[in-house]
Amino acid sequence: MASRIEKDALGEVPVPAHRLWGAQTQRSVDNFPIGVPRFRFGRPVLRAFGLVKQAAARANAELGVLPKDKAELIARAAQEVVDGKWDDEFPLVVFQTGSGTQSNMNANEVIANRAIQLAGGVVGSKKPVHPNDDVNRSQSSNDAFPAVMHVATVEELDRALIPAIEALHQTFDGKARAFADVVMLGRTHLQDATPVTLGQVISGWAAQLEDALKYVREARAGLYPLALGGTAVGTGINAPARFGELVAKHIAQATGKPFTSAPNKFAALSAHDAMVNASAALRTLGGVAMKIANDVRLYASGPRAGIGEITIPDNEPGSSIMPGKINPTQCEALTMVAAQVFGNDATVAFAGSQGQFQLNVFKPVMLHNTLESIELLADGLRSFDERCARGIEPNRERIRRNVEDSLMLVTALNPHIGYEKSAAIALKAHHEGTSLREAALALGILSREDFDRWIDPAAMTQPDANP
User: Fold this and answer.
1) If you count DSSP H runs as helices and E runs as strands, how many of each does the chain have, helices first?
2) Which of 3, 18, 130, 189 is catalytic?
3) I want to staple 39 with a disulfide (CB 3.0 to 4.6 A). Which of 55, 94, 101, 465 is the partner?
4) Active-site residue identified among 3, 18, 319, 447
5) What is the pLDDT of residues 259-318, one digit of tens each?
6) How many domains does the chain contain in total?
């Protein structure tokens, strides 16, 4: 393979001649063969790098520390990175330096060399655009990479996850209204309890999603402040005083998101609490997804020997040996997504605790795991919505039989005959395999008329409406 020689502070490095990356990127390719290609940064991160570098060039030009012609070349090249034209020029993996310096230099080198091409120069010459002196002007990896972390995460939350949560919430909200009159057996401790409606059950799922969405949006707001302007340790050395404010304004204009300059750059570089909080919100959503998916597959279990109170779509055969078997595969997939999100969050939480002195050096893995959780939850919730939730229907006959057979309907008798007599009726019916009515009449505790008047499953789902 033909190569060219590029130089950095450590000396000469052969780089494939057809590549836009330079010496520092090549060193990272050679030194970190860890998780290739699974753990490479994807489109959201590369787009964010392009946005950050473009905004930095424009801010530097406005502040008079970068010639306007150079800034325009950088901005043009960075826009091509934003648009995805050069994704193959970003080969680095997550498990590299913990500051993300090599990915930052990858962006600097690609944008510089592409700007050189646009100017009619020689790739690798660093003329008329230098990766450090021009593309990285007024920045350090220590503040540029955290800005990329925030920009990529905010954009993915808005693009993928929030719409998926909203869609599933809408589905459940409609189902809650549609099944408001379906009285079914409640269950606590996995044991029979007093009645609820299927609409009430599903309204609980919808409310959980609504709360989880609120937490995600609150966490997103914590990601708007950007570390740019802090440079190496938070003091802003080598950056003009207004750089942080101005570059955040340009990023906000380019993305349509209300990014601002972080008020304390020392915290912005040495701790990533906003990313930890965002991951925690994703973990909470994962818990909601786990609860909902488990409820659905248990309610749909059977079809003959399980609970079987709801039906869900038959999407594919469930067994290679048992003909006709259908499994709740969308539920299973979503619970596995939740398990992965829990693991990702554990990594992010630990990584967030490792800010030492003026820098946290777990940045790449925090970004990767947070974005993976966003992607998995967005895909998982969307698939579950489209292929399972929208097809949920009540098995009305099974529900009716289970309600009629329930011993916990006896709870409605408490106000009339007291707890101990009610318990005697329930235990007699259970031990003798009879109905509550038969047990009550056999014990002589109340009349048939009183029993039928006081035991009303539908009324038990709306106790506030009872006199």
Assistant:
1) 18, 10
2) 189
3) 94
4) 319
5) 999 999 999 999 999 999 999 999 999 999 999 999 999 999 999 999 999 999 999 999
6) 3
